[in-house]
């Protein structure tokens, strides 16, 4: 980039009566004698450094209380002539902890190279002293001190986000535009960066690439927000745009795609024989694909109809193979790019439930799904698995009313006895053109497709973080969805009647659409997931997305949980996925503005409980401790000819009272998720009290700070009676819960309580209790004496403190939490 003209002295070299390249530090300015030239140069740099230090100290003063972390300091940017660029190394001083962090690339015609250093507050006067010594002192040989550096500095200024940007200058994001940044972090700065980003509500990706002196993370922000992050920390070394997109791989020649695929295949460690499986119910899969073969044994491929074969079909555009690639690897782009070994923790199974050509009769899908599941289970009856299905239908939708297909799914998940099944379903996609002006209203008006009305499976919608468009064919195009918001084709349950479940439960990445401002939007390759193509002899990779891709990602995460915790119930795996979900900043921006319960319910029916995370599902950080309970109760009892509610389980919580009391008024969060499966009774008879769909319903309640256990039991008993009388969610109202009464839909309930740590210390019990269902209302069916099992996840979170809550909780429990 050419340097714009400005008022500055022109340097040239004394000697020979001519000017030549900048090769000697003995400078004169416009013919001035060397001493005066040195003084003039020093004076100009003193003025520049004075202005820069004043701005730097103002940035220090502007650091935000409760946000800023790390060593106080600021960044200075130096201009040095290109011919003297080797001098940038001398800007660094390790004893003073002054670090050279970024050197911006130059373009043809540039006169200067810009280098940025981090300067700790304690070393703020370092360059002032260097300049003063250059002005006033000489070495033994008669040269100015520090001449090798100071004589080569043209300008100094305080650095901002733009100063750390090392991509081509013309790609720097326009004012106000959110982009994904590659944030290159100084050695050891990752934890500080993550903490400050969380406080500033900056979305960051979990995946981090580490090098000997740098960690690279991805953050979503505009320029102003990124500048705040830099100002409040000391860890950012360099900024670039996150540029990797699927089009990089999709536009390769087949021979190049094969080279990349083979490189990944050589790095794969196949799954163990005892590994769990993702069983994909779809159009089959191409087992011979080099990236599917390590995780898909030919013996694990099945078909509903033996005449269909087990391979994938052009009629379905290789949909099953695309599902398989995402279910096995997640977004394949990451595995291709990082170069590290890939250990497969789960395997694949496929069941072809779609004919090679044509369509199944939608009303037969319940039986087809059941037969497909039986095929896989008969072949490997003891294998742990999660079933994944993205096949949906818009036939017979009724604002959340169960269909025969969704009811059969519920029956398959419930299973009877201990044979429970975990299923992941896609919420379904909008059909026809996607018009940007209709987003997201159209998504709220077109309901989740069948069998997504089911209560027991995990129903997955699509969100997106993909907003980077780099392909030159789409220059000037704009993404439809903002990063962190709903994917443009994803359906919701916003128009469902209030008694039906929240759908989707959660959302995963489903890609984005882009538009040129005149035509309907398109799902361009830059904004999609990368997966496996069903004809590897022609091409190895395929773009993929929408709720199919999101459901495959959901199954991938569920299998990851099962692989890590193989004894968990299906209800518990579903609970952990929902419990680990969080609303993105973009979702929270809409959600937090939704003050009324009806507005909150509308947001919940659009996004579910947000975006899950495997790390949160499996691990408890020191200030984020999670407890799990797997238990059962007998919900009903017979009293003469009447059936009445029976048991309530009271779980005492091993809170670290001393640690919480020490936090006092500090804000903490308590999150609770309750998950159970219901036995369906789907006959359409008006869905009155006597003709309920669910066999039973469970609820949770938390003991209040000043409430004794007996008073707590009485409150639960009254709440159960009130709900029997029609007061939905009576126990959940008020009391600082985020969702409150709207959380009790379907068979999974999750909510967050916020308050002081001292108040949480006294909230040391959770009650799980039944409310009515058809087991109670239909005694003639002889189900009232059945046990109802459930999973309960409880976590406390204190993000603003370093107190180790996890260890404090772990020290108090050596066995699972008993029910009282």
From TrEMBL:
<dbReference type="InterPro" id="IPR034074">
    <property type="entry name" value="Y4bN_pept_dom"/>
</dbReference>
<dbReference type="Pfam" id="PF00082">
    <property type="entry name" value="Peptidase_S8"/>
</dbReference>
<feature type="domain" description="Peptidase S8/S53">
    <location>
        <begin position="277"/>
        <end position="610"/>
    </location>
</feature>
<dbReference type="InterPro" id="IPR036852">
    <property type="entry name" value="Peptidase_S8/S53_dom_sf"/>
</dbReference>
<dbReference type="GO" id="GO:0004252">
    <property type="term" value="F:serine-type endopeptidase activity"/>
</dbReference>
<feature type="compositionally biased region" description="Basic and acidic residues">
    <location>
        <begin position="1"/>
        <end position="13"/>
    </location>
</feature>
<feature type="region of interest" description="Disordered">
    <location>
        <begin position="1"/>
        <end position="24"/>
    </location>
</feature>
<protein>
    <submittedName>
        <fullName>S8 family peptidase</fullName>
    </submittedName>
</protein>
<dbReference type="InterPro" id="IPR000209">
    <property type="entry name" value="Peptidase_S8/S53_dom"/>
</dbReference>
<dbReference type="GO" id="GO:0006508">
    <property type="term" value="P:proteolysis"/>
</dbReference>
């Amino acid at each position: 980039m050419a340097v714009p003209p400005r008022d500055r002295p022109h340097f040239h070299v004394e000697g020979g009566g001519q000017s030549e390249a900048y090769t000697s530090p003995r400078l004169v300015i416009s013919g001035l004698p060397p001493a005066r030239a040195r003084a003039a140069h020093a004076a100009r740099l003193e003025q520049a450094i004075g202005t820069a230090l004043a701005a730097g100290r103002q940035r220090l003063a502007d650091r935000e209380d409760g946000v800023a972390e790390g060593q106080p300091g600021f960044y200075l940017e130096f201009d040095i002539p290109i011919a003297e660029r080797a001098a940038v190394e001398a800007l660094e001083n390790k004893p003073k902890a002054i670090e050279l962090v970024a050197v911006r690339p130059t373009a043809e015609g540039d006169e200067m190279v810009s280098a940025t250093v981090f300067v700790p507050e304690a070393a703020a006067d370092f360059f002032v002293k260097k300049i003063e010594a250059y002005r006033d002192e000489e070495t033994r040989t008669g040269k100015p001190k520090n001449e090798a550096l100071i004589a080569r500095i043209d300008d100094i200024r305080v650095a901002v986000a733009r100063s750390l940007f090392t991509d081509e200058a013309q790609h720097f994001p326009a004012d106000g535009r959110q982009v994904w940044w590659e944030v290159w972090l100084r050695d050891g700065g990752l934890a500080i960066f993550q903490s400050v980003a969380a406080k500033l509500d900056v979305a960051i990706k979990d995946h981090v690439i580490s090098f000997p002196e740098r960690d690279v993370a991805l953050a979503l922000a505009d320029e102003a927000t990124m500048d705040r992050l830099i100002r409040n920390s000391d860890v950012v070394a360099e900024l670039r745009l996150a540029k990797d997109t699927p089009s990089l791989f999709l536009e390769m020649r087949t021979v190049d795609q094969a080279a990349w695929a083979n490189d990944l295949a050589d790095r794969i460690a196949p799954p163990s024989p005892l590994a769990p499986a993702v069983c994909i119910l779809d159009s089959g899969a191409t087992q011979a694909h080099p990236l599917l073969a390590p995780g898909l044994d030919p013996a694990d491929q099945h078909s509903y109809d033996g005449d269909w074969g087990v391979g994938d079909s052009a009629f379905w555009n290789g949909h099953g193979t695309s599902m398989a690639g995402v279910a096995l690897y997640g977004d394949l782009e990451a595995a291709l790019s990082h170069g590290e070994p890939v250990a497969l923790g789960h395997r694949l199974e496929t069941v072809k439930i779609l004919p090679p050509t044509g369509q199944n009769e939608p009303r037969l899908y319940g039986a087809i799904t059941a037969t497909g599941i039986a095929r896989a289970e008969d072949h490997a009856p003891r294998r742990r698995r999660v079933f994944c299905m993205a096949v949906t239908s818009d036939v017979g939708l009724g604002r959340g009313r169960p269909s025969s297909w969704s009811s059969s799914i519920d029956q398959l998940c419930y299973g009877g006895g201990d044979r429970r099944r975990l299923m992941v379903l896609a919420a379904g996609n909008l059909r026809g053109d996607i018009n940007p002006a209709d987003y997201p209203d159209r998504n709220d008006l077109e309901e989740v497709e069948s069998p997504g009305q089911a209560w027991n499976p995990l129903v997955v919608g699509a969100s997106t973080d993909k907003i980077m468009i780099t392909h030159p064919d789409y220059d000037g195009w704009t993404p439809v969805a903002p990063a962190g918001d709903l994917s443009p084709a994803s359906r919701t349950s916003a128009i469902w009647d209030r008694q039906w479940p929240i759908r989707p439960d959660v959302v995963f990445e489903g890609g984005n659409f882009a538009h040129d401002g005149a035509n309907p939007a398109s799902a361009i390759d830059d904004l999609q997931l990368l997966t496996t193509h069903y004809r590897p002899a022609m091409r190895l990779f395929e773009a993929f997305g929408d709720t199919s891709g999101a459901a495959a990602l959901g199954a991938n995460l569920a299998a990851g949980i099962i692989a890590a915790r193989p004894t968990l119930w299906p209800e518990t795996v579903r609970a952990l996925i929902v419990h680990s979900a969080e609303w993105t900043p973009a979702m929270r921006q809409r959600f937090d503005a939704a003050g009324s319960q009806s507005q909150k319910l509308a947001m919940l029916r659009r996004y579910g409980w947000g975006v899950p995370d495997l790390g949160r599902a499996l691990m408890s950080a020191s200030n984020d401790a999670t407890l799990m309970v797997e238990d059962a109760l007998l919900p009903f009892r017979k009293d003469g000819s009447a059936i009445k509610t029976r048991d309530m389980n009271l779980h005492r919580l091993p809170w670290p009272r001393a640690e919480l009391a020490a936090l006092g008024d500090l804000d903490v969060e308590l999150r609770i998720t309750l998950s159970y499966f219901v036995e369906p009774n789907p006959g359409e008879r008006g869905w009155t009290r006597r003709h309920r769909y669910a066999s039973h319903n469970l609820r949770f309640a938390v003991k209040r700070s000043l409430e004794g256990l007996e008073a707590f039991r009485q409150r639960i008993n009254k709440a159960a009676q009130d709900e029997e009388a029609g007061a939905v969610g009576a126990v959940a109202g008020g009391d600082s819960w985020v969702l409150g009464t709207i959380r009790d839909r379907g068979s999974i309930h999750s909510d967050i309580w916020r308050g002081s740590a001292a108040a949480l210390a006294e909230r040391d019990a959770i009650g799980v209790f039944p409310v009515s269902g058809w087991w109670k209302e239909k005694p003639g069916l002889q189900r009232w004496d059945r046990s109802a099992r459930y999973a309960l996840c409880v976590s406390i979170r204190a993000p603003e403190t370093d107190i180790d809550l996890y260890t404090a909780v772990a020290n108090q429990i050596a066995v699972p939490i008993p029910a009282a």
